[in-house]
Protein backbone atom coordinates (compact mmCIF):
# COMPACT_ATOMS: atom_id res chain seq x y z
CA UNK A 1 0.00 0.00 0.00
CA UNK A 2 1.41 3.40 -0.99
CA UNK A 3 2.14 6.19 1.50
CA UNK A 4 -0.64 8.39 0.05
CA UNK A 5 -3.24 5.66 0.44
CA UNK A 6 -2.14 5.06 4.03
CA UNK A 7 -2.42 8.77 4.80
CA UNK A 8 -5.94 8.95 3.42
CA UNK A 9 -6.97 5.88 5.40
CA UNK A 10 -5.60 7.37 8.63
CA UNK A 11 -7.38 10.68 7.98
CA UNK A 12 -10.72 8.94 7.34
CA UNK A 13 -10.41 6.98 10.58
CA UNK A 14 -9.61 10.10 12.63
CA UNK A 15 -12.37 12.19 11.00
CA UNK A 16 -10.02 14.50 9.14
CA UNK A 17 -11.67 13.62 5.81
CA UNK A 18 -15.28 14.41 6.91
CA UNK A 19 -16.95 17.37 5.15
CA UNK A 20 -17.98 20.42 7.26
CA UNK A 21 -21.45 20.24 8.85
CA UNK A 22 -23.94 22.94 7.71
CA UNK A 23 -26.70 24.03 10.11
CA UNK A 24 -30.20 22.80 9.28
CA UNK A 25 -33.12 25.17 8.84
CA UNK A 26 -34.58 24.06 12.17
CA UNK A 27 -31.38 24.51 14.22
CA UNK A 28 -31.15 26.87 17.22
CA UNK A 29 -28.92 29.23 15.24
CA UNK A 30 -31.56 29.63 12.53
CA UNK A 31 -34.35 30.09 15.05
CA UNK A 32 -32.37 32.66 17.01
CA UNK A 33 -31.76 34.61 13.80
CA UNK A 34 -35.51 35.06 13.19
CA UNK A 35 -36.94 38.50 14.09
CA UNK A 36 -39.02 38.75 17.28
CA UNK A 37 -42.76 39.22 16.93
CA UNK A 38 -44.16 42.40 18.47
CA UNK A 39 -47.19 41.07 20.33
CA UNK A 40 -48.21 44.54 21.51
CA UNK A 41 -48.82 45.79 17.96
CA UNK A 42 -52.36 44.37 17.87
CA UNK A 43 -53.21 44.57 21.55
CA UNK A 44 -56.08 46.84 22.57
CA UNK A 45 -57.90 47.40 25.84
CA UNK A 46 -61.65 47.37 26.45
CA UNK A 47 -61.66 51.12 27.11
CA UNK A 48 -59.65 51.89 23.97
CA UNK A 49 -62.08 49.97 21.79
CA UNK A 50 -64.92 52.30 22.73
CA UNK A 51 -65.40 55.75 21.29
CA UNK A 52 -68.32 58.16 21.60
CA UNK A 53 -70.93 57.47 18.93
CA UNK A 54 -70.70 59.76 15.88
CA UNK A 55 -68.32 62.13 17.59
CA UNK A 56 -64.61 62.51 16.90
CA UNK A 57 -64.00 64.32 20.19
CA UNK A 58 -65.50 63.86 23.63
CA UNK A 59 -67.80 66.64 24.86
CA UNK A 60 -66.16 69.24 27.05
CA UNK A 61 -68.23 70.04 30.08
CA UNK A 62 -66.05 72.64 31.83
CA UNK A 63 -67.64 75.08 34.23
CA UNK A 64 -71.36 74.69 34.83
CA UNK A 65 -73.65 77.34 33.34
CA UNK A 66 -76.99 78.84 34.19
CA UNK A 67 -79.76 80.34 32.11
CA UNK A 68 -80.48 79.49 28.49
CA UNK A 69 -77.16 77.63 27.99
CA UNK A 70 -77.47 75.46 31.12
CA UNK A 71 -78.36 72.36 29.08
CA UNK A 72 -75.68 72.71 26.41
CA UNK A 73 -72.50 71.68 28.20
CA UNK A 74 -70.45 71.98 25.02
CA UNK A 75 -70.79 75.79 25.00
CA UNK A 76 -70.01 76.00 28.72
CA UNK A 77 -66.44 74.64 28.38
CA UNK A 78 -64.31 77.31 30.03
CA UNK A 79 -61.56 75.61 31.99
CA UNK A 80 -62.01 72.00 30.91
CA UNK A 81 -58.91 69.90 30.83
CA UNK A 82 -58.33 66.31 29.88
CA UNK A 83 -56.80 64.05 32.45
CA UNK A 84 -54.17 61.52 31.45
CA UNK A 85 -55.54 58.00 31.53
CA UNK A 86 -54.00 55.65 34.02
CA UNK A 87 -53.65 51.92 34.13
CA UNK A 88 -55.83 50.38 36.78
CA UNK A 89 -54.09 47.74 38.90
CA UNK A 90 -55.91 44.44 38.89
CA UNK A 91 -57.59 43.49 42.13
CA UNK A 92 -58.96 40.09 41.25
CA UNK A 93 -57.10 36.88 42.19
CA UNK A 94 -55.00 35.35 39.42
CA UNK A 95 -56.84 32.03 39.63
CA UNK A 96 -60.11 33.53 38.43
CA UNK A 97 -60.86 33.23 34.73
CA UNK A 98 -60.95 36.33 32.47
CA UNK A 99 -64.07 38.13 31.30
CA UNK A 100 -66.06 36.28 28.61
CA UNK A 101 -65.77 37.72 25.13
CA UNK A 102 -69.52 38.53 25.13
CA UNK A 103 -68.92 41.15 27.84
CA UNK A 104 -65.44 42.49 27.12
CA UNK A 105 -62.75 41.63 24.53
CA UNK A 106 -60.14 39.13 25.71
CA UNK A 107 -56.44 39.79 25.39
CA UNK A 108 -54.88 38.38 22.19
CA UNK A 109 -53.15 35.06 22.58
CA UNK A 110 -50.12 33.58 20.85
CA UNK A 111 -50.53 30.13 19.31
CA UNK A 112 -47.53 27.86 19.68
CA UNK A 113 -46.24 26.22 16.46
CA UNK A 114 -47.31 22.62 16.03
CA UNK A 115 -44.67 19.88 16.34
CA UNK A 116 -43.94 17.87 13.19
CA UNK A 117 -44.78 14.16 13.31
CA UNK A 118 -41.92 11.65 13.64
CA UNK A 119 -41.19 9.90 10.30
CA UNK A 120 -42.10 6.22 10.26
CA UNK A 121 -38.55 5.26 9.21
CA UNK A 122 -37.05 6.63 12.42
CA UNK A 123 -37.23 4.68 15.70
CA UNK A 124 -39.48 6.10 18.40
CA UNK A 125 -37.57 7.15 21.50
CA UNK A 126 -39.40 6.89 24.83
CA UNK A 127 -38.76 9.93 27.04
CA UNK A 128 -39.62 9.99 30.74
CA UNK A 129 -41.92 12.83 31.81
CA UNK A 130 -40.18 15.86 33.24
CA UNK A 131 -40.62 16.53 36.96
CA UNK A 132 -43.29 19.08 37.92
CA UNK A 133 -42.04 22.63 38.30
CA UNK A 134 -42.80 23.97 41.75
CA UNK A 135 -41.10 27.36 41.50
CA UNK A 136 -42.62 30.03 39.16
CA UNK A 137 -40.32 31.05 36.34
CA UNK A 138 -39.86 34.79 35.86
CA UNK A 139 -40.67 35.81 32.30
CA UNK A 140 -39.26 38.87 30.57
CA UNK A 141 -42.54 40.30 29.27
CA UNK A 142 -42.74 43.95 28.14
CA UNK A 143 -44.99 46.08 30.32
CA UNK A 144 -47.92 47.29 28.22
CA UNK A 145 -51.35 48.64 29.23
CA UNK A 146 -53.80 45.78 29.60
CA UNK A 147 -57.47 45.51 30.44
CA UNK A 148 -58.26 44.89 34.10
CA UNK A 149 -58.77 41.10 34.56
CA UNK A 150 -62.21 40.40 35.97
CA UNK A 151 -63.86 37.24 37.26
CA UNK A 152 -66.11 35.33 34.91
CA UNK A 153 -69.83 35.54 35.58
CA UNK A 154 -73.04 34.75 33.78
CA UNK A 155 -75.02 37.60 32.32
CA UNK A 156 -77.61 38.88 34.79
CA UNK A 157 -81.25 37.93 34.50
CA UNK A 158 -83.94 40.56 34.54
CA UNK A 159 -85.74 40.86 37.84
CA UNK A 160 -89.11 41.00 36.08
CA UNK A 161 -90.45 40.04 32.64
CA UNK A 162 -89.25 42.39 29.92
CA UNK A 163 -92.65 44.08 29.51
CA UNK A 164 -92.57 45.05 33.22
CA UNK A 165 -88.90 45.58 34.03
CA UNK A 166 -88.43 47.81 30.96
CA UNK A 167 -91.24 50.18 31.95
CA UNK A 168 -90.48 53.30 33.96
CA UNK A 169 -92.04 53.35 37.44
CA UNK A 170 -92.30 57.14 37.14
CA UNK A 171 -95.18 59.16 35.69
CA UNK A 172 -95.02 59.69 31.94
CA UNK A 173 -95.31 63.46 32.39
CA UNK A 174 -93.72 65.87 34.83
CA UNK A 175 -94.68 69.57 34.95
CA UNK A 176 -96.58 69.08 31.71
CA UNK A 177 -93.51 67.69 29.92
CA UNK A 178 -93.29 64.10 28.73
CA UNK A 179 -90.47 61.86 29.97
CA UNK A 180 -89.29 58.46 28.62
CA UNK A 181 -91.46 55.75 30.15
CA UNK A 182 -89.74 52.63 28.78
CA UNK A 183 -86.22 51.29 28.59
CA UNK A 184 -86.16 51.64 24.81
CA UNK A 185 -87.18 55.33 24.98
CA UNK A 186 -84.65 56.13 27.71
CA UNK A 187 -81.89 54.36 25.79
CA UNK A 188 -82.59 56.37 22.62
CA UNK A 189 -82.74 59.66 24.54
CA UNK A 190 -79.38 59.01 26.22
CA UNK A 191 -77.77 57.93 22.94
CA UNK A 192 -78.98 61.10 21.19
CA UNK A 193 -77.69 63.24 24.05
CA UNK A 194 -74.26 61.59 23.80
CA UNK A 195 -74.11 62.15 20.04
CA UNK A 196 -74.93 65.83 20.61
CA UNK A 197 -72.19 66.27 23.20
CA UNK A 198 -74.64 66.70 26.08
CA UNK A 199 -75.13 64.92 29.40
CA UNK A 200 -78.58 63.34 29.65
CA UNK A 201 -78.66 64.09 33.40
CA UNK A 202 -78.86 67.81 32.50
CA UNK A 203 -81.50 67.49 29.81
CA UNK A 204 -85.10 68.59 30.01
CA UNK A 205 -87.20 65.41 30.56
CA UNK A 206 -88.83 65.83 27.15
CA UNK A 207 -85.60 66.46 25.20
CA UNK A 208 -85.58 64.66 21.81
CA UNK A 209 -89.15 63.46 22.44
CA UNK A 210 -89.96 63.59 18.74
CA UNK A 211 -87.25 60.97 18.13
CA UNK A 212 -87.52 58.65 21.15
CA UNK A 213 -91.32 58.64 21.45
CA UNK A 214 -91.60 56.01 18.69
CA UNK A 215 -88.76 53.79 19.97
CA UNK A 216 -89.83 50.18 20.47
CA UNK A 217 -86.73 47.97 20.20
CA UNK A 218 -85.72 46.76 23.65
CA UNK A 219 -81.95 47.34 24.12
CA UNK A 220 -79.92 44.35 25.27
CA UNK A 221 -77.64 44.18 28.29
CA UNK A 222 -74.66 44.56 25.95
CA UNK A 223 -76.28 47.66 24.35
CA UNK A 224 -76.49 49.29 27.76
CA UNK A 225 -72.92 48.31 28.57
CA UNK A 226 -71.61 50.01 25.44
CA UNK A 227 -73.69 53.16 25.98
CA UNK A 228 -72.65 53.51 29.63
CA UNK A 229 -68.99 53.03 28.72
CA UNK A 230 -69.27 55.74 26.05
CA UNK A 231 -70.91 58.13 28.51
CA UNK A 232 -68.16 57.47 31.05
CA UNK A 233 -65.48 58.11 28.47
CA UNK A 234 -67.11 61.40 27.47
CA UNK A 235 -67.34 62.53 31.09
CA UNK A 236 -63.70 61.56 31.73
CA UNK A 237 -62.60 63.72 28.81
CA UNK A 238 -64.71 66.75 29.68
CA UNK A 239 -65.04 66.76 33.47
CA UNK A 240 -62.69 69.67 34.00
CA UNK A 241 -62.75 70.91 37.60
CA UNK A 242 -66.36 69.93 38.17
CA UNK A 243 -67.51 67.67 40.97
CA UNK A 244 -68.69 64.26 39.72
CA UNK A 245 -71.01 61.80 41.43
CA UNK A 246 -71.53 58.28 40.03
CA UNK A 247 -74.59 56.06 40.64
CA UNK A 248 -73.97 52.33 40.15
CA UNK A 249 -76.62 49.64 40.41
CA UNK A 250 -79.63 47.98 38.82
CA UNK A 251 -83.12 49.24 37.89
CA UNK A 252 -83.36 51.31 41.09
CA UNK A 253 -80.42 53.40 39.91
CA UNK A 254 -81.36 53.36 36.23
CA UNK A 255 -84.69 55.12 36.82
CA UNK A 256 -83.37 57.65 39.33
CA UNK A 257 -84.95 60.87 37.93
CA UNK A 258 -82.14 63.18 36.76
CA UNK A 259 -84.37 66.23 37.33
CA UNK A 260 -84.22 65.39 41.07
CA UNK A 261 -80.43 65.76 41.12
CA UNK A 262 -78.60 69.03 41.91
CA UNK A 263 -77.19 70.85 38.91
CA UNK A 264 -74.17 72.25 40.74
CA UNK A 265 -72.24 69.08 39.88
CA UNK A 266 -72.03 66.42 37.16
CA UNK A 267 -73.79 63.06 37.47
CA UNK A 268 -72.88 59.79 35.75
CA UNK A 269 -75.47 56.99 35.94
CA UNK A 270 -73.88 53.55 35.48
CA UNK A 271 -76.91 51.40 36.33
CA UNK A 272 -78.56 48.69 34.20
CA UNK A 273 -81.99 47.21 34.81
CA UNK A 274 -81.80 43.61 36.02
CA UNK A 275 -78.09 43.75 36.82
CA UNK A 276 -76.55 41.60 39.54
CA UNK A 277 -73.56 42.12 41.83
CA UNK A 278 -71.50 39.79 39.61
CA UNK A 279 -72.45 41.81 36.52
CA UNK A 280 -71.59 45.11 38.20
CA UNK A 281 -68.18 43.76 39.26
CA UNK A 282 -67.52 42.85 35.64
CA UNK A 283 -68.10 46.35 34.25
CA UNK A 284 -67.04 48.99 36.79
CA UNK A 285 -63.70 49.39 35.01
CA UNK A 286 -65.65 51.24 32.27
CA UNK A 287 -65.57 54.46 34.32
CA UNK A 288 -62.13 53.92 35.91
CA UNK A 289 -60.68 57.01 34.21
CA UNK A 290 -63.22 59.43 35.68
CA UNK A 291 -62.32 61.49 38.74
CA UNK A 292 -65.38 60.66 40.82
CA UNK A 293 -66.04 62.65 43.97
CA UNK A 294 -68.63 60.21 45.33
CA UNK A 295 -69.73 56.75 44.15
CA UNK A 296 -73.20 55.56 45.21
CA UNK A 297 -73.58 51.75 45.08
CA UNK A 298 -76.90 49.92 45.54
CA UNK A 299 -77.30 46.31 44.36
CA UNK A 300 -78.34 42.84 45.50
CA UNK A 301 -82.12 42.62 44.94
CA UNK A 302 -81.78 40.71 41.67
CA UNK A 303 -79.28 38.32 43.25
CA UNK A 304 -81.80 37.51 45.98
CA UNK A 305 -84.51 36.92 43.39
CA UNK A 306 -82.20 34.59 41.45
CA UNK A 307 -81.44 32.54 44.58
CA UNK A 308 -77.83 33.65 45.07
CA UNK A 309 -76.70 33.02 48.69
CA UNK A 310 -76.23 36.12 50.85
CA UNK A 311 -72.58 35.21 51.46
CA UNK A 312 -71.85 35.24 47.72
CA UNK A 313 -73.65 38.57 47.24
CA UNK A 314 -71.64 40.12 50.07
CA UNK A 315 -68.42 38.72 48.59
CA UNK A 316 -69.21 40.24 45.17
CA UNK A 317 -69.91 43.62 46.73
CA UNK A 318 -66.73 43.43 48.80
CA UNK A 319 -64.69 42.83 45.63
CA UNK A 320 -66.53 45.68 43.92
CA UNK A 321 -65.77 48.07 46.79
CA UNK A 322 -62.10 47.11 46.83
CA UNK A 323 -61.73 47.58 43.09
CA UNK A 324 -63.50 50.95 43.27
CA UNK A 325 -61.11 52.05 46.01
CA UNK A 326 -58.14 51.19 43.81
CA UNK A 327 -59.60 52.92 40.76
CA UNK A 328 -60.83 56.00 42.67
CA UNK A 329 -58.66 56.54 45.78
CA UNK A 330 -59.91 60.12 46.07
CA UNK A 331 -63.63 59.22 46.02
CA UNK A 332 -66.07 58.68 48.86
CA UNK A 333 -67.75 55.28 48.36
CA UNK A 334 -71.25 54.86 49.78
CA UNK A 335 -72.91 51.43 49.98
CA UNK A 336 -76.70 51.41 50.41
CA UNK A 337 -78.76 48.72 52.06
CA UNK A 338 -81.10 46.63 49.92
CA UNK A 339 -84.69 47.86 50.13
CA UNK A 340 -87.57 45.79 51.52
CA UNK A 341 -90.07 44.36 49.04
CA UNK A 342 -93.66 43.23 48.80
CA UNK A 343 -92.78 40.35 46.47
CA UNK A 344 -93.02 36.69 47.51
CA UNK A 345 -89.92 35.70 45.50
CA UNK A 346 -87.71 38.02 47.59
CA UNK A 347 -87.95 37.24 51.28
CA UNK A 348 -87.57 40.22 53.58
CA UNK A 349 -85.80 37.94 56.06
CA UNK A 350 -83.12 37.38 53.42
CA UNK A 351 -83.02 41.14 52.73
CA UNK A 352 -82.32 41.85 56.39
CA UNK A 353 -79.71 39.07 56.54
CA UNK A 354 -77.94 40.51 53.48
CA UNK A 355 -78.00 44.04 54.88
CA UNK A 356 -76.31 42.83 58.07
CA UNK A 357 -73.51 41.35 55.94
CA UNK A 358 -73.20 44.54 53.86
CA UNK A 359 -72.86 46.59 57.02
CA UNK A 360 -69.96 44.37 58.10
CA UNK A 361 -68.32 44.61 54.66
CA UNK A 362 -68.52 48.41 54.70
CA UNK A 363 -67.08 48.60 58.19
CA UNK A 364 -64.19 46.25 57.45
CA UNK A 365 -63.33 47.98 54.16
CA UNK A 366 -63.72 51.46 55.64
CA UNK A 367 -66.45 52.79 53.36
CA UNK A 368 -69.73 54.41 54.33
CA UNK A 369 -72.86 52.28 54.78
CA UNK A 370 -76.23 54.03 54.59
CA UNK A 371 -79.02 51.86 55.93
CA UNK A 372 -82.12 53.24 54.17
CA UNK A 373 -84.10 50.05 54.84
CA UNK A 374 -85.96 51.40 57.92
CA UNK A 375 -87.22 54.43 55.97
CA UNK A 376 -88.83 52.22 53.32
CA UNK A 377 -90.48 49.54 55.46
CA UNK A 378 -93.96 49.51 57.00
CA UNK A 379 -94.98 48.18 60.41
CA UNK A 380 -94.78 44.60 59.08
CA UNK A 381 -91.28 44.96 57.64
CA UNK A 382 -92.48 45.14 54.01
CA UNK A 383 -91.93 47.89 51.45
CA UNK A 384 -94.32 50.75 52.13
CA UNK A 385 -97.15 50.61 49.56
CA UNK A 386 -97.10 54.39 49.09
CA UNK A 387 -93.47 54.24 47.85
CA UNK A 388 -93.77 51.55 45.15
CA UNK A 389 -95.54 50.82 41.88
CA UNK A 390 -95.36 47.01 41.86
CA UNK A 391 -94.08 45.95 45.28
CA UNK A 392 -90.45 46.15 44.15
CA UNK A 393 -89.66 49.30 42.13
CA UNK A 394 -89.97 52.83 43.49
CA UNK A 395 -92.44 55.49 42.43
CA UNK A 396 -91.75 59.24 42.55
CA UNK A 397 -92.37 59.37 46.31
CA UNK A 398 -89.96 56.46 46.85
CA UNK A 399 -87.25 58.16 44.81
CA UNK A 400 -87.74 61.33 46.84
CA UNK A 401 -86.85 59.32 49.98
CA UNK A 402 -83.75 57.85 48.34
CA UNK A 403 -82.77 61.26 46.95
CA UNK A 404 -82.57 62.66 50.48
CA UNK A 405 -80.25 59.81 51.43
CA UNK A 406 -78.06 60.36 48.36
CA UNK A 407 -77.66 64.07 49.05
CA UNK A 408 -77.05 63.67 52.78
CA UNK A 409 -73.64 64.84 53.93
CA UNK A 410 -73.65 62.52 56.91
CA UNK A 411 -75.82 59.53 57.81
How would you describe this protein?
This protein is α/β, with parallel strands linked by helices. It has a domain of 267 residues: Rossmann fold, CATH 3.40.50. The chain is built from 13 helices and 7 strands. The strands form 2 sheets. The protein has a 5-stranded parallel beta sheet with strand order 4-3-5-6-7. Strands 1-2 form a two-stranded antiparallel ribbon. Helix 8 runs parallel beside helix 10. The longest helix is centred in the middle third of the chain and has 18 residues. It is globular and about 45 Å long. It starts with a helix and ends with a helix. About 37% of the residues have low confidence.
Write the layout of secondary structure elements.
Blueprint: H1 3-14, H2 28-32, H3 162-165, E1 173-174, E2 177-178, H4 183-195, H5 209-212, H6 221-238, E3 244-249, H7 251-254, E4 266-271, H8 277-283, E5 294-298, H9 301-305, H10 310-327, E6 332-336, H11 348-364, E7 368-370, H12 373-376, H13 396-407
Parallel strand pairs: 3-4, 3-5, 5-6, 6-7
Antiparallel strand pairs: 1-2
Helix pairs in contact: 4-6, 8-10, 10-11
